[in-house]
Amino acid sequence: MRVIIEKDYKAMSKKAALLVASQVRLKPDSVLGLATGSTPLGMYDELIEMYNKDEIDFSEAKTFNLDEYCNLSPENPQSYHYYMNDNFFSYINIPEKNINILDGMTDDVKRECIEYDMKIKRAGGIDLQVLGIGPNGHIGFNEPGERLNVKTHQVDLAEETIEANSRFFDSKEEVPKKAITVGIATILKARRILLLASGKNKAHAIKETVSGHVSTQVPSSLLQTHPEVTIIIDEAAAELI
Ligand code: PGA
Fold it and tell me: What is the pLDDT of residues 171-187, one digit of tens each?
């Protein structure tokens, strides 16, 4: 695990964007695993800026997002479909057919999950997986628990996650209770993993990720078993390491 500590959110975002850009420059048809949430927003902004300066070309890239809420339509501003278009895809030249996001509106969740894993496999697997991290150590929506479901699956969101994500909704009651997420195996099969964290409220999760016991109670700790993980965090998130 390589841990890079940057001064603040802006510097963290810049560094992360440089790493993604170098992946896409070296392999223009890279398969990128992408994350949502507040943390990668700065990185997406930096990538858009690079694209506007002709420094990066996404025309051959493919993307697979980590997760999506159940029962929010793509037009709902809180859905991750909407987020990705609004914050990234609509500003770059990635062909729509190369974008993959789980369908949270499906009436056949099992099939959606199986097909998503198949699509990732058919695309050749993920070259670079970008991850945020929950204060409870979740990655994607793989929440702490006695057992982890390794493949793409539906989850009941943890109370802490509903609480943390309620800031994006008008009220906590509006936060969906279920989501679909890629599993830990899909994440760990990525050739390279980039985990980002910013702020004091992630410091404990980062400490457990970097030096805690590997445990399903802290899903991010499983990243210790992967040979190519880069963690880019700001000073606040690095406070306990
Ligand atoms: P955040 O979410 O980037 O909004 O903090 C990260 C996560 O919950 O995985």
Answer: 999 999 999 999 999 99
pLDDT in tens, 98-131: 999 999 999 999 999 999 999 999 999 999 999 9
CB 32 within 8 A of CB 23: yes
* C-beta 42 within 6 A of ligand 1: no
Query: How many angstroms is it from 38 CA to the middle of ligand 1?
Result: 6
Positive or negative CA dihedral for 218, 190, 97, 103? negative
Check if 209 has its Cβ closer than 6 Å to any atom of ligand 1.
no
Q: Maximum distance among all alpha carbons in the chain? A: 47
Q: Cα dist. 123→33, 139, 171, 215 in Å?
A: 12, 22, 38, 30
Per-residue pLDDT averaged across 30-50, rounded?
A: 98
- Contacts of residues 49-52 at CB distance under 8 Å and 24 or more positions apart, as own/partner, are 50/17, 50/21, 51/91, 51/92, 51/93, 52/91
Report the first-to-last Cα separation within the chain, whole angstroms: 13
Candidate from 9, 34, 38, 66 with most ligand 1 atoms within 8 A of CB, to mutate: 38
Residues 192-225: pLDDT tens digits? 999 999 999 999 999 999 999 999 999 999 999 9
